[in-house]
Amino acid sequence: MDIFKIKKERITDRIKDTIAVIGKAPEKFAHIVTMAIGTLALLISEVLKAAAE
After folding, report:
1. How many domains does the chain have?
2. If you compute the radius of gyration of the chain from its CA atoms, what whole number of angstroms results?
């Protein structure tokens, strides 16, 4: 569930807000997706670490 929450908060909601304010801006979209991927990678590593223990 954390992954879906992060996706909604860090990707979907931010993209909607950015489009509403700035319009379509591919560089902003790329930045949002890059940041979200980093966050998800950290979450996945925490889950794998917990599973290993």
Report:
1. 1
2. 13
